[in-house]
Amino acid sequence: MSGMKTPVSVLRLPRGPEPNSRGFDPTSPRFIALCPTTLPSSSSSSGSADEEEQRLRAELRERFLRTLLLMTGKRVRFDMHEHVRVHARFGASDIDVLNLQVCDLETPLGVQREALLRSQDVIACSFEV
Amino acid sequence: MLQWRDRSPQHWHELVNHEVCVTNRDQQRFEGRVFTVDPVSASVVLLSVQESERLSVRVILGHAVTDVQILRRGTEETERQMKSVLLPDRAQSLSAEELKSRRESVRLWLEQNRVPVTEDGEVLRVANALTISAPYRPGDCSSANEIILSRVQSLVESNDEKIRGHLRS
C-alpha cells in the first residue's frame, strides 16, 4: 500500500453548501434525517438546571473542538464498517460532525488527493499525539 | 434503556476522566480514558497508551456507540495529565499576583487603545461582546464577533511583545 502514491482523478464532486447561508440549514432534509433533536430534555425545567446543563454541554463541546484542532493536519486512521481501515490527513469536520474533510486518502485504488468521508461510514478515528 | 445518543449531558459528563470500555454495534471494544463526549454527535474521545508507549487519541463516532462501561475511575492526577496532553495551552503555572498584574497590564493597554473594557472577577470583558480569561494571552480571548476578536487579539499580542521587549532591554 505504501508504494501506491499515484493520485487518482476525482470521480464525483460532492454538492457544496448553499451560497447564501453559512452552510448549516436546520430545515434541510439532510439535517433532519441525520441529526436527532440535539437537546435531549432533562425532566426538570427549572432555570438553574438548564444553565447547568448548558454549562456542561459547553465544556464537553469545547474539549471536543480542541480534540479536532489537535487532529488537524495529522495522519489519522479511520476504522470503517466491515473492518475496513484507511489512512488520511485530517482537514476538518462540519458543525454536526456529519462529514469529515481529509486529504491524501490512501485507498486500494490509489491516493485520493481530496475526499469527504461521511461520518455514518466511519466508526472511529485514531491518531497519535 | 436509553440509547447512547439520547443520554443527558450530565450522564456524558460523569464519564469524563474515567477509564471505560466502549462497545459498538459490531461488538468491537475500545478502551481508554474519556477526555470528552461531544454533545452534538455523542462521539466519545478516548485517550490510551499504546504498546509503543505513545499516546493515542481515538474518536468513536456517536452513531456507532451502543454501550459505555466504566472500568476504573480516574483521579485528579489523571485529569491533570490528560489536560496537559490534550489542552497544552492551559498550563496554570502563574501565581495569583502574577495573574493580577497581567490582567491589569492588558486592561490598561486596552483602555489606552480606547477599547471599552471592564474587569469581572478574574475575567476581562470588552463591550459585552468579548471575554478574556486567565492568563490573558491572545488565545484566551473568546467572542462571537470575528472582527472584535481579531482586533482585541492583535492588541493583546502587541502588549505581550511590549512586555517581552522591556524584559530584554
UniProtKB/TrEMBL annotation, chain A:
Protein known as: Gem-associated protein 7 isoform X2
One Gene Ontology term from the biological process aspect of the record: spliceosomal snRNP assembly
GO CC term (a single one): SMN-Sm protein complex
Residues annotated as domain SUZ-C: 1-28
One Pfam assignment: Gemin7
Domain of life: Eukaryota
PROSITE patterns: SUZ_C
InterPro entries documented for this protein: SMN_gemin7, SUZ-C
Gene responsible for this protein: gemin7
Residue numbers spanned by region Disordered: 1-28, 35-54
Coiled-coil portions: none
Automatic annotation (TrEMBL), chain B:
Protein name per its UniProtKB record: Gem-associated protein 6
GO biological process, one term: spliceosomal snRNP assembly
Any Gene Ontology CC annotation: Gemini of Cajal bodies
Entry's transmembrane regions: none
Subunit structure: Part of the core SMN complex that contains SMN1, GEMIN2/SIP1, DDX20/GEMIN3, GEMIN4, GEMIN5, GEMIN6, GEMIN7, GEMIN8 and STRAP/UNRIP. Part of the SMN-Sm complex that contains SMN1, GEMIN2/SIP1, DDX20/GEMIN3, GEMIN4, GEMIN5, GEMIN6, GEMIN7, GEMIN8, STRAP/UNRIP and the Sm proteins SNRPB, SNRPD1, SNRPD2, SNRPD3, SNRPE, SNRPF and SNRPG. Interacts with GEMIN7; the interaction is direct. Interacts with GEMIN8; the interaction is direct. Interacts with SNRPB, SNRPD2, SNRPD3 and SNRPE; the interaction is direct.
General function of this protein: The SMN complex catalyzes the assembly of small nuclear ribonucleoproteins (snRNPs), the building blocks of the spliceosome, and thereby plays an important role in the splicing of cellular pre-mRNAs. Most spliceosomal snRNPs contain a common set of Sm proteins SNRPB, SNRPD1, SNRPD2, SNRPD3, SNRPE, SNRPF and SNRPG that assemble in a heptameric protein ring on the Sm site of the small nuclear RNA to form the core snRNP (Sm core).
Keywords: Cytoplasm, mRNA processing, mRNA splicing, Nucleus, Phosphoprotein
Origin species: Cyprinus carpio (Common carp)
Residue span, AD domain: 69-164
Keyword Cytoplasm assigned: yes
